[in-house]
Amino acid sequence: MRLIRHLSVVAFASLLFLVGLSIVSSPAQAANPWDCAAGDNPNNFSGTVSTPLAPARSGSRAIEFRFHAGHRCAWGRILYGAPGDLVWVDWKNSRSDPDSARVQLRVWQINDGESQFTNSYNDAGHVMRACGQAVGQPVGCTGWY
Fold first, then answer.
1. pLDDT at position 126, please?
2. For position 49, what pLDDT does the model report?
3. CA of 37: how far to CAs of 30, 43, 122, 125, 136, in Å?
4. Residue 82's CB: how many other CB atoms inside 10 A?
5. Which of 118, 130, 47 lies closest to 91 in space, CA to CA?
6. Whole-model pTM?
């Protein structure tokens, strides 16, 4: 009985060692600097940022959809705003499928100043648009991109 218990303990310890060794010896995956991780701060991107769509309006506010092709990132921005104004990005699977469910991503509010951007979102395989709302005004959204 002791022999079986001893062999069980040795086998379990060996298994833990091998699992630990494989975790330690696995090479870390290098991050691709051109991939956009959801939540990246667009202010940290270098290079060209484009606004491929005409801005939308909510009152006197401009709502922009912004895109960085190198990072495959998209985000929204509201300009000429005031505290309390909102901006967000809508996401869906297909531009051509009217039944494709629209998902409203996190809503950002201007707390001070005149502009606010959302975090960025990886747009691979999806279509997106920027939306915003000035306090007391109807929502304005860009076209889908």
1. 84
2. 80
3. 14, 14, 6, 14, 33
4. 15
5. 130
6. 0.70
